[in-house]
Amino acid sequence: MNRARTRRDRGQGGIGALMGFLIGAAVLPLGTPALAQQPAAGEALDAARAAFEALPEADRKAIQDALVWTGDYNGTLDGAFGKRSFDAIRAFETRSRLTADGILTPAERDALLAAAQRQRDAAGFAVIDDRRSGIRIGVPQKVLAERSDTPGGSLFRARRGGGALTTDLIPAAAGTGLKDLYADLSAAAPGRRITYKVLRDNWFVVTGEEGAERFFTRFAATAAGLRGFTMAYPASAAATFDRLTIAITNSFEPEPETVSAATATAGAGGAASPAPTVSGGNAFTAIVLDGGRALTSAAAGACKAPTVGGKPVKIEASGGAAFVEGAFATGSAPVAWRRPEGTEQAVFILGHAATGGERRLVATPGVLKVAGDGAARLAAPVQPGMAGAPVVDRSGALVAIVGPLPQTMTLVAGIALGTTVPATIAANLADSASLPEADGTGEATTLGAAAEVWRARIVAVDCPGG
């Protein structure tokens, strides 16, 4: 308890009074269900919700994250749409002199993402693994440019005052419980005013004011002990730090699943690591064919020790694709191909994404673009692990497969943002893969229905070591 008291008395807390209304939204810990945003009546909101929810989850979260950086959104990055998201989009549209209907066109989304990236770059925002405290957190390294060690973590602060971020670990061996620390940090004291406090089973948040400074403190109970961070800054600098603190809060992970040697070393040496990147080529999706083979991206042929379900498999490259040899169970529906319609076609992409150390099936819409020379590109929020994934038309027929992904893919809030990646037209693989051509034009289907049909036909291929 003495250690917690000393920490509080240093004034290295969190954000402050006007942040209290965020509790239950932006301050939810990783894995805690976000509180539902309250919908508002009105055709405008309903239309905006329909447009927003038609987007892939990765795009929805990217929009919310961008709106945080433009200063329009103060909630969690959950991809859910309610009045808070609606008002944030309209605020951005109004300031940008766009039609304030809450619906972002593709061009307007691009403008929003670009505006947000300029703000991130200006702050030097990077998500790092802090070795001393054991947490993963975003640090605006151009704003909080000085770093030093503390007994249980790190202190990042501005060179000329104006803000400080402190990470901290109180080891389990210290015997301080979450409730004890909460009681200490939320206690009233002369010159100190608590504006919000909330305690849950495994986390708490306390916000308030102390003199001319605002603060925000968040801790979570972990197996190693109590891990958390605090943010403090002058009320006069709220225009800058309110936005930064929301971004920091949304990035906070008290128990990151993996800590790479590179980021751990950077945390120990005092340099903030760049935004996390993962290899786009160390995992693939394969389409199960008849005859004990599976079709995937040609890039998989470079994998030295491929596995499927933890068992070694053999991959052989052939032309613009690669084939995985194995005893695969095939689905009832055959894999049939159809030529793309025109130079741009709305499609579905279904693959096993590799996120957070796990593989999970992801289904997302996209646009297949075919150039005059036959080269194909795919505009979609393709995630690591989805190279080789089937690209199907709205009838469910195969029109292409996802090509090789970038060597590194930058993650924002754990998600690779929408990008353009190469694709291989299915018609070019028909002979080598022995694929029949689909009959007729086929009936339109939904993304969910397409995913159900293809679920049994796609498998995850891992490439340990890259």
Protein model, in words:
Pfam families: PG_binding_1. The protein is globular and about 80 Å long. The strands form 6 sheets. It has a 7-stranded antiparallel sheet with strand order 3-4-5-9-8-7-6, with helices on both faces. The chain is of the alpha+beta class. The protein folds into 2 domains: 1-274, Protein Transport Mog1p, Chain A; 283-462, Beta Barrel (Thrombin, subunit H), CATH 2.40.10. It has 10 helices and 25 strands.
The main pleated sheet reads as: 7 strands, antiparallel
The structure class reads alpha+beta
Assigned CATH architecture of the largest domain: 3-Layer(aba) Sandwich
| Poorly predicted spans | 1-41, 257-273
CATH superfamily of the largest domain: Mog1/PsbP, alpha/beta/alpha sandwich
Q: Using DSSP, what is the number of strands?
A: 25
The third-level CATH topology of the largest domain is Protein Transport Mog1p, Chain A
Mean pLDDT: 81
CATH class of the largest domain: Alpha Beta
